[in-house]
Write a structure and sequence with these properties.
Largest interface: A-B, 33 and 31 residues
Order of helices and strands of chain A: EEEHEEHEHHHEHEHEEHEHEEHEHH
Oligomer: heterodimer
CATH architecture of the largest domain in chain A: 3-Layer(aba) Sandwich
Order of helices and strands of chain B: HHHHHHHHHH
Helix content of chain A: 25-40%
Distance between the termini of chain B: 32 Å
Structural class of chain A: alpha/beta
Number of strands of chain B: 0
CATH class of the largest domain in chain A: Alpha Beta
Largest sheet of chain A: 6 strands, mixed
Structural class of chain B: mainly alpha
CATH superfamily of the largest domain in chain A: P-loop containing nucleotide triphosphate hydrolases
Strand content of chain A: 25-35%
Strand content of chain B: under 5%
Radius of gyration of chain A: 23 Å
Number of domains of chain A: 2
Chain lengths: 333, 273
């Protein structure tokens, strides 16, 4: 059997008779027993990839195997080995937590006595015992996600797909889910997780790929990506856009990466944050430019994207010149 | 994780699993009917309102029929047909909702029988129709319905009604799968439901309708089913006219409808889910 829990080869998926290319030839290999991350903004193709790997959607071309079984040729074998949970916690609102798990267990063709024991075990593990007999309608967002994850785990699948499991959750619920995922992996489960959060990928994923507009633009360990990216973002707020324009020329050499200017705010990805900040301040002081604000922060997914692609995640237009965008893309590939 | 998964996959044939899947989905749908107040009102209270409306408001003199036993004996068999057909609206709404909420997509990633979602929905709506028939029967008797056909014929009449409604519900399943959301699904069913139930012999005699409408109202399937049901329920009354071939025609319509609508809904389901 393959060393990889999930293998995808040149997956292409188009919609609307080819008008929309959601995936443009994505290949990946997910090693067993670890969390593999699929990082990308909305519309990058993450969910489409998960839907293909979980047999919900068939690829337009390319092939994929899960636990050694082809997702198109042997979907039932794949379905017996996977659990799927995600952003749109698709639990049944009109059933109780326990009834939801029992329904999924029954549809997984498991013995009734096993399902009942397993459902109670999962509800306990996820802190839902007290709510087990309440309608899901009364659950909070975090509780729904945990129940959704529980439903994915009823059959004890060796491979778990989590599609943005923490999007929209409060920090505490997010922490809770991270702990659950870590425990699962310790128990030998392979997890393929999609996320928009670099922090999440950094905490959970051993390896990850970055998707943009249906193609992989970077892959490696999160450490490798962060090194490539630079560790910190230096954000300077000037009093006027004129100051910002003058300032950016003075401090450009502080970072090897291009500066991002938006109005009076200039952002630079730097290595060695405090030293770079001091350096920038000295140069601005010498030119008698004062600042309205200065912050140093961990890079966000936006910064990763800016660094890798030259465009931000939300808007499709490149903030810098087209030349920079093209160069960045060329380097990323 | 204390229990090994390999030991718990129960060994049954795929057909038995398919049946089990259908019943699991049907049970889940039935629970929803009980738990959503609006659904309960829709399926139970509305038919009762129809009985009271036509028995005591329209039927108190506005509508006259030339039938033995008076209007109430004419009305209740018709209402039984009408309410089971209205139940099919629930099939469309339920499927549209499941689709909208992503539940059907989630089911797709499970090793269950693919058709169980569709079959489970129609089976649960059949279950609800059985419940509604019992209620209408009780309410009917309470408002003066006194059929003469005997218990066996009464049950036979109910079975014909249920069979027809079940077969028709596959058409409404198609509507539910084609609709962008549950509100649209509901709206899309009305242009089907109203001509079928009101331009029929359910509430009034077809002979009282304008001439251009009479051919449709006479021969459309709901009228045939109503004629059969009315004959079976009240047939022992020597004054009730013979239903002719209506019983066979009703059964043939049912079989014909499911032969046409079943594959249509199935194809649609495969396309959207």
């Amino acid at each position: 059997m393959s060393d990889f829990a999930v293998e995808a080869h040149a997956i292409v998926r188009t919609f609307n008779d080819g008008d929309v290319q959601a995936l443009k030839g994505v290949s990946l290999q997910v090693p067993r027993g670890e969390v593999f991350g699929l990082l990308g903004p909305n519309g990058s193709g993450k969910t489409t990839m998960v839907r293909i790997l979980s047999t919900i959607l068939s690829p337009t071309s390319g092939s994929a195997t899960v636990d050694g079984f082809d997702v198109v040729k042997h979907p039932d074998e794949v379905r017996r080995r996977i659990g799927l949970a995600g952003q749109y916690a698709t639990v049944d609102e009109n059933l109780t937590g326990l009834e939801n798990l029992r329904m999924i267990g029954s549809l997984n063709h498991l013995e009734k006595s096993y399902v009942i024991a397993r459902a109670k075990e999962l509800l306990g593990e996820f802190g839902l015992s007290d709510a087990a007999n309440r309608n899901v309608k009364t659950y909070s967002g975090g509780m729904r996600r945990r129940l959704d994850l529980g439903a994915a785990l009823v059959a004890n699948p060796p491979i778990l797909f989590l599609d943005e499991p923490t999007t929209g959750l409060d920090p505490q619920s997010r922490q809770d889910l991270w702990t659950i995922i870590e425990n699962l992996v310790e128990g030998g489960t392979t997890v393929l997780l999609t996320t928009q959060y670099l922090e999440e990928a950094d905490r959970l994923c051993k390896q990850l790929v970055v998707l943009d507009k249906g193609a992989i633009i970077a892959e490696g360990t999160s450490q490798e990506l962060k090194t490539r990216l630079g560790a910190t973002v230096l954000s300077l707020t000037f009093h006027t856009t004129g100051d910002a324009a003058r300032g950016v020329e003075l401090i450009r050499s502080v970072s090897a990466k291009p500066a991002n200017v938006e109005g009076t705010v200039v952002e630079l990805t730097v290595e060695g944050g405090p030293a770079a900040a001091a350096d920038a301040l000295r140069r601005l002081d010498a030119a008698a430019i004062t600042l309205a604000g200065l912050t140093l922060r961990e890079p966000s997914l936006d910064d990763v994207f800016l660094s890798l692609t030259g465009h931000k995640t939300e808007d499709e237009t490149a903030p810098n010149s087209d030349v920079v965008t093209t160069k960045r893309k060329a380097r990323a590939q | 994780m204390t229990i090994a998964p390999e030991t718990v996959h129960a060994a049954k044939s795929s057909l038995r699993w398919a049946v089990s899947d259908v019943l699991t989905i049907a049970r889940r749908n039935m629970l929803a009917i009980v738990r959503i107040p609006t659904a309960l009102v829709f399926s139970v209270l509305q038919p009762i309102m129809f009985v009271l409306l036509f028995r005591y408001i329209f039927g108190a003199g506005a509508i006259t029929v030339n039938a033995p036993g008076g209007y109430v004996n004419y009305l209740i068999p018709g209402i039984i047909v009408q309410t089971t057909i209205f139940g099919a609206v629930g099939t469309a709404i339920g499927l549209a909702e499941d689709l909208q909420r992503g539940l059907i997509e989630r089911f797709r990633a499970l090793p269950m029988a693919r058709m169980a979602v569709l079959a489970g929905r129609t089976v649960s709506d059949l279950g609800r129709n059985i419940l509604v028939l019992v209620i209408i029967t009780l309410v009917g008797f309470a408002v003066g319905f006194r059929p003469h056909g005997g218990v066996v014929n009464y049950i036979f009449a109910c079975l014909i009604t249920l069979l027809f409604a079940y077969c028709l519900s596959w058409g409404f399943a198609y509507v539910g799968l084609a609709a962008p959301n549950s509100e649209a699904a509901q709206a899309m069913t009305f242009p089907l439901i109203f001509p079928l139930t009101f331009a029929s012999g359910i509430f009034v005699q077809v002979s009282s309708m304008p001439g251009w409408l009479q051919p449709f109202a006479t021969y459309q399937p709901v009228s045939e089913v109503t004629k059969a049901v009315r004959y079976l329920m009240d047939g022992a009354n020597p004054l009730v006219p013979s239903a002719g071939n209506s019983i066979w025609v009703a059964i043939l319509w049912s079989v014909g409808l499911i032969a046409l609508l079943g594959p249509l809904a199935t194809a649609k389901y495969k396309k959207v889910a």
